[in-house]
Amino acid sequence: MADNARIICILSIFLGFLTFCSTAQAQDSGGIIPQRDMKPTIQHLGPSKVIPVATRDMFYFDENGKKQELKQDFQFVGCQFKEAYADKKSRHTYYKNKVRLVISELKEEELLERGIYGVRLMAGADEQKWNVMAEYMKKDKELDFAYRVFYRVSKKKVKNLLFLTNRIEVAFSAKPDDALLTKLRADYPVEIVGEIKDSRVMLRMTDKREDSVNLANVMQRAAYIRYAVPEFIEVVGRPVSKEDVDRLPAMPQDPSTMPDPTKPPKRLKNPPRPRKNQMGQPQ
Length: 283
What we know:
By secondary structure, the chain is of the alpha+beta class. It has helices at 2-28, 88-99, 109-113, 127-138, 178-187, 212-220, 242-247; strands spanning 43-44, 50-51, 59-61, 67-69, 76-81, 102-105, 117-121, 143-147, 149-153, 159-172, 190-197, 200-205, 225-235.
């Protein structure tokens, strides 16, 4: 009997030791047991940098309520630094050390006036790479905002870039009072800039993680908002080449205005005069 009691005592001590080790291991791992079959819902950007990728709308509604389709150009990104009008050396150091995909900046006066730098990326950028890079930039302390860039082809077969900003124009369903404006600021991460005219006002986003197209579409559904339109800055580009057509499919529109990649481009009767540094390169 004494031998049996001794064996039971030894087994109890051993089992207690195993329980202690299991508890300590769970605490070290945060109490989370890894599951091999779980599919990742996030993408990684280098060691110890986990970047969640958000879904972004590729359309918006204009002031008449008409849906406008958008096409994103993944070779460009717009960025606004925390330090307004950061000097050239600081910007280029940032591109070199953190983004590492930058070829050049666009020298467009309207962008620079707003402190927005249009950045051309290396060839080969696709939606997945752009999304990961942009999400990283949105969380970087050196930047205020990182913007998507869209494009459209004009009737003269010129590709123009549409740079998003952090502003949204909103028209209210009725003349707004203080209570409605307070509700607006409580419902959405925005602040009012400028005066309210004819129940319309310009808003500025206060959350750098937001995307103005997505936020405008969310605001559009509010009963007290008649329309919400994201602000774009349009940069006039250069004639579309066959390579552009192959790389970036044209926006849905009148087929007669679109270039035919199988035929040489027609010469314009009054071609625009070339501009230096436009779209990041001399024309």
